[in-house]
Structures are given as C-alpha cells and as structure tokens.
Write a structure and sequence with these properties.
alpha/beta; 7-stranded parallel β-sheet; about 30% helix; 21 strands; about 550 residues; globular; 5-stranded antiparallel β-sheet
C-alpha cells in the first residue's frame, strides 16, 4: 500500500501569526480556513499546525493547559472541526502538534498534584526532595536558562522538575496511568479526522539519574541536555507510543534534536516509532551548543557534508522530513544566503534545494515569499522567553547589550513568529488590529499580494518547483546520491535529475550535465553565479 505522506508537500503554520480573521491582533482558526485556497494553489497537501490547545501561553502554546480544548483567541473546537473537514475536502491533511514531554503548570493534573502531596497525580510529574541544605536535587540548567528545579509552594524541601520553562513541568513517563490517559487523548483526536501529529521534544521523555555534574557556566549550573535528551532507556517509551500510533493509523513526525544516526531505527523505518523525522543535525550550523552568542564562521563545505550525511543516513533506514526553517529557527535566507544582495534569488535557490531532497519537504509560513529576519533595537521588543534567557546568558558571558541584541536579531525564534505578510497594508494583511508581536519591517516589499502578480517572484518560483516535484515520482522514489563537485556547491542526484546549488557569493565555472529544467536565475552561461541553483534532467 502506497504511503501517501511520502508524496506530500508539507507546510507549517504558526497560528498566532498566520491570519487574524476576527481582527483582535492574534491569528485564529477562521484565518487558516480563509487561506485554504491559497495553500491549495501553492500545491500544499499536508499542514502541520503548531499548538492550538488551551494554554496560558508562557511558551506560545507549548505549555498546554487542556489537550482537548482550543485556546480561546484561536476559536473553538467547532472551528477546529470545520478546519479539519474543509481541509480534507480539498485533499489537504491536518497534523496537530503533540506535546507530551510536559504540560502547563495550570493543567488540572499538575494543579491536583500541587494541592495534595498524596495525590496520585504526583506520579504524573517529577517531584523530588532537595539535599536538605536548601539546595535542589541537582545543578542542571534548563533549556530556557535557570535551574531545572522549582520549589513546590508551601513545602520546604520539595521541588518539581522542568526541562524548559518553570511553567512547563515535565511528565513522568514511568507512570502507567499518565501514559494511558495520553493514549486515550490521541485516539480521540484521530477520530476527529486529523492525519496525525508532529511530536514535540519527544526525545526528552526519559531522564538520567538526578545527580549534579561539573558546572559549565557563570551561573553555577550545567546544561541539562546530556541528562534529559536521548537518554538510554527511552526506547521502552517509544515502543508504547508506536503501539498507540499504529492502533490509530497516525502519520507522525518526530522532533528529535541531537538524534544520533546510529539509533535511527528506533525512530523511523520498519520497526521505528514514527513515520518520519525532522533532522536537526544540519540546521544549527551557525551556532555552537544552541547558544545564540556562540557564533560559528561556518563554511559551505561543512553545511554540505552535514546535509549529505543526513540524507544518506536517513534513506538507509526510513523517511525524513527535510526543512530549512520553522517556528524555532531564524529565517533560512539570513542564515544560508549571507550576502543580502542575493536574498531574492537565494530564496529561489533554497526552494530548489529543499524541494529536491529526499523525504517529505516542509515549507514554513512566509518561506515561500522569502521572508527575512527582523531588526530590533532593544530586549523589550522581543516576545520569546528563550530570547530573553539568551540575552541574559549573553550578558553574563561578557557581551555588551548591543552585541547581545545583534545575536538575537540573528537567531531569535521571534524572527519566524512575526505575522505572515499578505499585502502591504498597515499590518501586512494579517489583521486590521495591531498584532500581538511587532511586524517585520520588510512587509511592504515582501508580501503575497505583490508576488502573486509577479511571474518572476519567489512565490511563483516555489509553485514551479512544487509542480515539478509532484509531477515526477522520481523525487520521492529515487535515492539521494551525493555528487560533490566544489567546496561551495551542494550538488547531488535524484534519479535522472542533477541538482546544483551555489551557496557562495562567487562565480563558479561548472560543466553541467543534461538539460536545464529549473533555474533560479534567468540564464546559465557555463558559470554558476552567486547563490544560483539549477535542476537538470538527462
């Protein structure tokens, strides 16, 4: 039986910033419904939507208060059902975000656990006593900065654990009743007609022994990553998840930052838990240790080799979901097209690359029109709690306020969370109301309305590449073959096609094979121009 999702074109929606239909400054479900025709015309047939569940919005929806209610500004469960039904009628499948490493601290389970230390819901989370000397159980630093332990109100020596924000307590996957409740929730969502889930931070669900380690920063803490992510023993929970997913015929995408390739068969493939995986091993090329202020002077050759490795390793075992940007990443143009002069043509070249890789490609909202990073001048202009944490860490590491803001402008998650730019009106056609987050200042010149009218636009180029991919199964069924030709060129073969991507601002003479099918420039004269991309056919 053909696995339809291998032939799909994926698109990620960040609902707060996609389209605001009721004009309160916050994107909503009715707004997504109003843009289904646009997505259909683009060629998209699989949509992953970031969390829309009821939430206090401490981490923009990734802190869930109720898995089976909708955040009120987004709409209602009836609106959600309407979206699912109308999308399905167009042949567009909907994927929800499944966030089961943690909940909000306002979730009813956690509230019951706080109120009664003898409550069975204490077993749903990680509660531990401190060392008896006023210190927490161990000295780990959370992903968003600060200790992973928070004191339980009214209890002198009791703490709860959070890998991320202190308002996102981690679930204890050792608890059978907690796992059972999650499984029942998944089944109920599938009955509503969704295709499945993108599974958030799932490789955090097993924890190492809660013991202190040598500090690695001026805050006297040590990063929790080594003790909370990809911890041995996690496989037993993946087996449980696979049983749930298989029973409900879920299509799933795993988010597994730092995933080791030697363990790929646990994630994807014949015996893997998930349908496909987002591989981050090539995405954070610009920073070290996921700290914004630890910038790298990366080379194209290094990025090329990481991308090659990702494609080659994944196709041996299972299926990937290639991507260049998402709600947690800066805009790919700024990261990969480092000379601003070539941003427009570079956006087309990146479209060629993404949509010719093996796997189910995912376009992030605004990527198809070449949206870029913003420029902010002060920390008060940022919304993301991780940006604020990174700012404090940067200052603590000796950088100035100006330098720290520069790092955030390059890497903050807010870059990809600014409103979608539909036209050049005051708020970019996103809303008639001031948006919940500052607009990207480029919206008058980078927007959907202008690009629809321009045959040479980034948007219309995306449509051409999507049409080519969907018209020839070779882009799905043929293997990825690395074809290195030059240190600044990412070149590879997909069946009868050869792809050439110049990721430098230099002219590079190159003899190409076959006839040109798509070209991000208007011509080719024997030289790959700066940031030029080609697909040829033999």
């Amino acid at each position: 039986m053909q696995q339809w999702w291998k032939y799909a074109i994926g698109y990620q929606i960040y609902p707060m910033s996609f389209c605001d239909k009721n004009n309160d400054g916050i994107g909503d479900i009715k707004g997504i419904i109003s843009k289904l025709d646009y997505l259909e015309d683009l060629g998209v047939n699989l949509i992953w939507i970031c969390p829309m569940y009821d939430s206090p919005m401490d981490d923009n929806g990734y802190d869930i208060r109720d898995y089976e209610a909708i955040y009120a500004p987004f709409g209602t469960m009836e609106d959600m059902q309407e979206l699912i039904d109308k999308a399905n009628a167009k042949g567009i499948k909907i994927m929800m975000d499944l966030v089961v490493n943690h909940t909000s601290d306002e979730h009813i389970w956690f509230q019951k656990a706080l109120k009664d230390k003898h409550s069975p819901y204490r077993d749903y989370y990680w509660f531990k006593e401190g060392d008896g000397k006023g210190n927490p159980p161990c000295n780990w630093r959370s992903v968003f900065g600060g200790p992973v332990w928070e004191k339980v109100p009214g209890e002198d020596n009791m703490y709860y654990f959070h890998s991320f924000s202190k308002r996102q307590p981690d679930l204890n996957w050792n608890c059978p009743s907690m796992r059972r409740e999650l499984g029942e929730m998944i089944a109920r969502w599938m009955k509503r007609g969704i295709a499945g889930f993108r599974v958030d931070a799932i490789n955090f669900i097993n924890k190492d022994a809660f013991v202190s380690h040598e500090v690695d920063g001026p805050d006297g803490l040590v990063s929790c990553f080594a003790y909370t992510r990809n911890v041995p023993g996690i496989e037993k929970y993946y087996v449980y998840l696979k049983e749930i997913f298989d029973a409900n015929k879920c299509v799933t995408i795993c988010e597994a930052t730092g995933m080791p390739y030697e363990e790929l068969d646990v994630y994807v493939g014949e015996h893997g838990t998930f349908s496909m995986v987002f591989d981050f091993n090539y995405t954070n090329i610009d920073v070290e240790n996921e700290d914004y202020f630890r910038r790298t002077n990366w080379r194209v050759e290094s990025y090329r080799d990481l991308l090659y490795d990702s494609q080659l390793q994944l196709q041996k075992v299972g299926w990937s979901a290639p991507f260049l940007e998402n709600h947690d990443q800066p805009r790919c143009i700024n990261k990969l097209i480092r000379n601003e002069k070539y941003h427009a043509v570079g956006a087309k070249t990146l479209a060629l690359m993404l949509l010719s890789l093996k796997g189910t490609p995912f376009i992030y909202q605004g990527q198809e029109i070449g949206m870029v990073n913003f420029k902010r001048t002060g920390i008060e202009q940022f919304d993301d709690l991780n940006a604020k944490s990174q700012y404090e860490q940067s200052l603590a590491n000796g950088f100035s306020e100006e330098e720290s803001i520069y790092f955030l402008n390059m890497r903050s998650r807010d870059n990809s969370r600014t409103p979608m730019c539909w036209d050049k009106s005051q708020y970019g056609g996103f809303s008639n109301h001031e948006p919940w987050i500052l607009m990207n200042e480029k919206y008058p010149s980078i927007n959907v309305e202008d690009q629809i009218k321009d045959e040479t636009s980034v948007l219309n180029f995306y449509k051409k590449v999507i049409h080519l991919r969907k018209s020839d199964p070779a882009f799905v069924e043929s293997d990825f073959e690395a074809y290195p030709l030059h240190k600044d060129i990412i070149s590879y073969k997909r069946g009868k096609y050869t792809i050439y991507i110049n990721l430098s601002d230099k002219d590079i003479k190159l003899d190409i094979e076959g006839n040109i099918v798509l070209n991000s420039y208007s011509d080719y004269d024997g030289t790959l121009k700066p940031y030029q991309g080609l697909i040829t056919e033999q």
